[in-house]
Amino acid sequence: MKKWLFMCLCSLIVLGMIMNVAVADGVEPKEPTERAVTLEGGDYGFADAPEINVGVFYHIEKDDHVNQYRKINLPETGTYHFYMRNMSDDSFGIKIRDVYNKDITRVSNHGRAPYIVELDLEAGTYYFKESSGGFYSWFPAEAYFAVCSPSRHAGDLSDYEVIQKPTCTEPGYQAQHCLLCGGEANIVEIPATGHIAGDAIVARSATCTQDGESYIRCAACGVEMETQVIPATGHVPGTEEVFQEATCLTPGIKGVKCVTCGAILSQEEIPTTGHKAGVWVDIKPVTCLADGQRAQRCSVCGETLNTEIMPAFGHSPMEWQITKEPDCLTNGRQEKKCAICGAVLETEAVPALGHSYSEWEVVKQPSLFSEGVHKRHCFNCGEEFTENYR
Prior knowledge:
The structure is a single chain. The strands form eight sheets. Strands 1-2-9-4-7 form a five-stranded mixed beta sheet, with no helix packed on it. It is mostly beta strands. 4% of the residues lie in helices and 44% in strands. It has six domains: 11-148, Jelly Rolls (Sandwich); 197-230, no CATH class; 241-270, no CATH class; 277-310, no CATH class; 317-350, no CATH class; 355-390, no CATH class. It is rod-shaped and about 210 Å long. Strand 17 and strand 18 (264-270) form a beta hairpin.
């Protein structure tokens, strides 16, 4: 009973390692027929089955025997490739069995096209047998057959090619390919390249007083490799400048700023300038009757430093001026003004001129019976006067 359980468990383990049967894509087999080993047919049962070797290209003769077992010892656990090509249009097929004569899988093919099966198998002994029911036999017709292991192939090998490129942290690998089954052979690891430092990227610029920060990314994969401190630059003093001008009474400030950030690095007081006397300026004009006032102001800030009174001038009479001319019958007027302010100081009447007559001019001669008429006019006003005369 225990032996039976052990056999079942081993069968399950083997079955778990098998992949689905598939034809390898993109494979154009190159058969090494010049070194093919002829495998003759025969009536061999499970116990006396002859061995088939891994990595040998076999030429199979037509075999019509009933018991057609073949045994193969798989030297390693891994992916195996089974190559088959029929030399006629007949169908053929095989079963793969474990050491307990339990079926693992069945492979069949029709026609002359090459057929490649990829299986993941554990190291150990396996058997090939015809399919059940008599539909298929080991190889009913002439055929070619080979089993390629992960490290031993029946076909020629290609040049090395990179199968997977290494990354910065993960190795890659290169391998040769079997020109018969397409499987990989002689796999060689390509070491990880390691990170390649790219240019430093400034994450935070340094200032005059604070450190900055930069980081370096791998130029290949972009991973952040390291961060670096960018030292503070320190202040850069500029030339001395005046921050606040001094006035007559208030001191000023001068100093030096950083040309980068504008911080004040040093400063000192500028003494007051003191008042500077300017010219006298009238602030209240003097008149003939009222006193005036003038002031002396600082020429810098304009503050009044001194004031003084300017005495009234008093009137300065001008000559008499006639403001209304007299005529023959009416008096005129004249006045005397102040030459400074124009105030009228005195007024008086200008006597009327009186008429200034011309000679009489006869308008009508007198006669014996009537009076004559004559006239005259005033030279000043032009008024005419007429009267009768004899």
